[in-house]
Amino acid sequence: MTDITATSAGNATASPGRTLAGIFEAAGPLIALILLMLIGSLMSDSFLGAENLSNVFTRSAIIGIIAVGATFVITAGGLDLSVGSLSALVAGVTIMFMNSAAEVLGPGWQLVAAGIVCSLVVGAAAGLLNGVMIVKGRVEAFIVTLGAMGIFRSVITWLADGGSISLDFSLRDAARPIYYGQVLGIAVPILVLGVIAIVGELVLRRMRFGRHVAAIGSNRHVAFYSAIPVNRVRILTYVIQGLCVAVATVIYVPRLGAATPSTGLMWELEAIAAVIIGGTALSGGFGRIWGTIVGVLILGFISNILNLTGFISPYLNGAFQGAIIIIAVLLQRDRSQG
Amino acid sequence: MALLVFRDIAKSYGIVPVLKGIDLVVKPGEVLALVGENGAGKSTLMRIAAGLAPPSSGTMLLDGAPAPATLHAAERAGIVMVHQEFCLAPHLTVAENVFLGREITRGLFTDRKAMEARARDLLAELGSIAPVRTRLRDLPVSDWQMIELAKAFARQPKLILMDEPTAVLSATEAGNLFARIRAFREAGGSVIFTSHRLEEVKDIADRVAVLRDGQIVRVENTSDISEDAMAEAMVGRPLSEIYPPRRGAADRKALLSVAGLTSPGAVEEATLDIREGEVLGISGLVGSGRTELFEALFGLRPARCGSFVLRGEARKLPAAREAWGLKLAYLTEDRKGKGLLLGKSLDQNVALTKGAINGARWIDRRAERRDLEAAVGRYDIRAGRLDVTAGALSGGNQQKVLIAKTLAVEPDLIVFDEPTRGVDIGAKQQIYEIIATLAAEGKAIVVISSEMQEIVGLSDRVLVMRRGRIAGELSGDAISETDIIRFAMGLEDKAPQEEASH
Question: Domain count of chain A?
């Protein structure tokens, strides 16, 4: 009778963490990261050097921050493909804003602060737009964010007139510390990623909001019938994603000092890959931020190893990322939602 | 010579045994009825026979040879199943559905004309005049059932398995189906069917097998067993014992009075009182708007109403979250789809609604654990370990978790929608006790149920629905199965609203 289909999920009997398989599943991404670092250290002497590690971490921070937002979206059963294009748009708009506001605010910290606020506003607005279209407009997340991806990319290309939008040279020194600065010997991007990851993990695991995000991803109808404000929570996940993209972009802008139509290209692939590698269920219902961070590092180190060793062309980096996503989802396939 | 033999068939899902050693023989040219409570294992046994689920152990023989193990092999061997949930494609036409996977072809192409003509004949044999070129989604559910049946007969089977074929049919339609089944039997075909309507079993079946908790407890020629004896074999004890004793009639205060509640396409102009300390039973056929009435009342579907008076104060219809805040709780009939997060732990499930209502920002895991332990004690949830997921529990225990989750918000009005569906008899009795205790505490209780005995056994007052309207009301000693069926079928002249609707 009808009660049978549910109980057939026999593998769902024990919570992860109790059995050996559970431990392996829980720590899988971490084990993969350690193996990867072992391989890296065997293949290149400079791999474990402080400079190289710091370099990989700093570069990974941008994708990492975006991926923290993606963890919320995916855990709630959504998807956001527009993050890469949004990043380019945020970068372009912010640079244009800073260039024109420089006359009023001068090339100091006030200008940088205004630029950050501008980024956050654009990011949050774009996220809100995505969320409202998906939730209130009842259009598939895939379609809305695919459309948004095209729109954002096209708008930045138009704004840049096909070329690039550059931060005035006179302003670059003010913005520079955001990417290149250090606090207590740790690069700023790594610190920002760390703070965002810890906050994200707390929200997802300890706060009612995070519980609701997972409940909605697990079964939206159950969430609705359990008095959870489903629409509000779903929209908020996209706003969080937009804010994360904005923060990542704030860090990215000082690195190159310009936005071009190819800024943030394929970042959505990397962010989603990191989330899935980290053990968050692609179908929603279970997410973990620390896993996402491990996922980002795995992707970062693969790219790094390809660059350092030269056995395989770095041009194939994207192929590796694509293959890893597929493998990670294959491994997830038999697992029940957590 | 037997057509199909089950020998010591057992089936379990995970750790939950569903069938325990079934021995049963189906003869050629006979109609065999499987009866039993929800969760007794009838559908599972059918699914095994149809090749949809492999048995965990035991053997099955068809015409003396090992029976086919897959759906396709079973169909080729002449066994087809008519499902309880419709397995039809809404966007295809009636004819296309009837021949789905068996299309009549001419050369490379499907022969639409031939299929349409044949589908018309097949439906006519069932007394149905459903238009064969119409897309299915434009037709009512009773037509769907007929199309499902036509599809089965179209395959010229030896054995048809029918799971609750009459659940959504009117009396006339059911009569047509029985005529068709008799003709099929004359031609040498066999039928296994399940039904909750025992008089139907008496009418059409040659033999009846009674299942209880995964075992066959009785097999008889239908001429040798009364309907009451079937029912008592199903529940395993005299019927009177499983329901809590009735409370005396009293003058009860209305907690909620609603007038003129309408939800487009589902509920029309419903007016009712829900009273403190009373169990209000809601009966009616599947699709008569029982569930929809209360979903509409609690903001779970679009609706409007003339008046909504709660605790003596008039207000507008509440939205979904608002209803919980007003201490109105709806306990869904769809435990898996709308009730529990099957992949999540028990404490998270129990805390879900309470947490969403009380608005605390941070999660207190220790308190959640304590709440779960208290619920396990109070509602006798049998889980073995407490850190399992909700999906790992049996139907009855899942239902108790759902009850615990709903009652955690301490509501004043609780709507139990099919509270014992897919629940074994022991848990059923416990759920009845929970309901009776709540009513005794002065809560207003509504029980929606398809099980007539449950309605009669539990209710102080009964509303019967038909086609989205409240067709009749019965209370106290006047509550009887016969009267409920009359109202539900529209045979009662006393229902003034009914005339207005036609």
Answer: 1
